[in-house]
Amino acid sequence: MEGRLPAPGMRPPSRTDHPIRKEELVAAVVCAVAVAHFVTPAGLHGWHWLHVLFQKMFYLPILLAAAWFGLRGTLLTAGAISVLYTVHVLLDWEGYRMVQAEQIGELASFWIVAVTSSFLFDRERRALAETTASHEETLAALASSLDLREHETSMHSHRVREYTLLLAERLGIKGEAALTGIGTGAFLHDVGKIGVPDSILLKKGTLTDEEWTQIRRHPELGVSLIGPIRFLGGAREIVLAHHEKFDGTGYPRGLAGESIPRTARIFAVIDVFDALTIDRPYRAALPYRSAAEIIASGRGSHFDPDVVDAFLKIPFRDLAEIAVRNGVVLISS
Question: In Å, what is the CA distance from 185 to each residue of 178, 190, 209, 245, 256?
């Protein structure tokens, strides 16, 4: 692996996501609970149960802060709640010392929950980070093992992952889980070639029909290899179907049109584009314009027309930046 690369299978810095800020959400929940708590009157009456319910809901923003912000953010949230809650105790229970003492005890419980939950969530985050790191190392080892055999395709897996994520986002695919699955599938698309003998995989001359049959088994070999690995479930579609063609003449199953998984239809364009724009033993890398023309000529036959249209709208600059990060210089024309 060369340079500082995004984690295998994970997304590069997002270009299109605009989620609601978590800080704003926690602040809004604190304010909403405080308003609801203040407007329902305290005291011995029929609505007192609702007042108590809203009082208990102050734990919600504390737990959200613990899950998202760590100890400092959780303590700040608990502090804001404490100020609001103290105002409530002084105003609504003025003169009721025993009730105020009980309410202060409730205030102390906010801080206990804040500190305890922040430590528990922090431990969970560390465990998740360690698991994620182990997954990334597994992916890197799988992809790198193939790069070591096919030297001319070195960094291919890294480039196509980033190209694929860019195109997927252009096609409106959103969500961390979906994009991570697509990125992982792109990264591991050719992992089944590990099961192809070197005498075939590295052969410089023309392959025989029998050798082509061996090569065409690599999608199924790849799925067989990653099949037992649960966290790679989102990658299987690309690994199995990235050589299917839109007109049904691809392999291994001869799928056509929308029966080909959408992720595989997206990746098919990227896989061919990268193969065209890198040096190979039998030809020099093609410039972007020539590669784009070949992609366009396969619209509706090799490739999904909608995917081709979206790809051709991506500015050359965006593709060139990805290429440079991953060991290739794209030439525009």
Answer: 11, 9, 28, 17, 20
Q: Residue 328 and residue 146: Cα distance in Å, rounded? A: 18
Domain membership flag for residue 181 = yes
Q: Which among 94, 128, 162 is the end of a domain?
A: 128
Range of the domain at 90: 22-128
Do residues 318 and 245 both lie within one domain? yes
CB count in 10 Å sphere of residue 271 = 21
Q: Do 299 and 198 sit in the same domain of this protein?
A: yes
Residue by residue, pLDDT tens for the chain (333 residues) are: 333 344 444 444 444 444 458 888 888 888 898 888 777 776 666 667 787 888 888 899 999 999 999 899 999 999 999 998 888 777 766 766 777 777 788 888 989 999 999 999 999 888 888 887 777 777 777 666 666 666 555 578 889 999 999 999 999 999 888 998 999 999 989 888 888 888 888 787 788 989 999 889 999 999 998 877 777 888 899 999 999 999 999 999 999 999 999 999 999 999 999 999 988 777 889 999 999 999 999 999 999 999 999 999 999 999 999 999 988 899 988
Write down which residue in 93, 128, 163 finishes a domain: 128
> Is 136 inside a domain boundary?
no
Tokens of 315: 């500015």
Confidence (pTM): 0.66
| Residue 124 in domain | yes
Position 8 in a domain: no
Scan for tokens 């604190």, then name that residue: 30
195 and 228, same structural domain?
yes
Question: Angle, nearest 10°, between helix axes 22-39 and 59-92?
Answer: 30
Kindly state whether residues 123 and 192 are assigned to the same domain: no
Structural domain count, the chain: 2
Question: Which residues touch 23 (CB under 8 Å, ≥6 apart)?
Answer: 69, 73
- Of the candidates 261, 262, 260, 244, which has an alpha carbon nearest to the alpha carbon of residue 252? 244
Report the C-alpha gap between 333 and 327 in whole angstroms: 19
* Amino acid occupying residue 51: H
Terminal Cα distance for the chain, rounded: 29
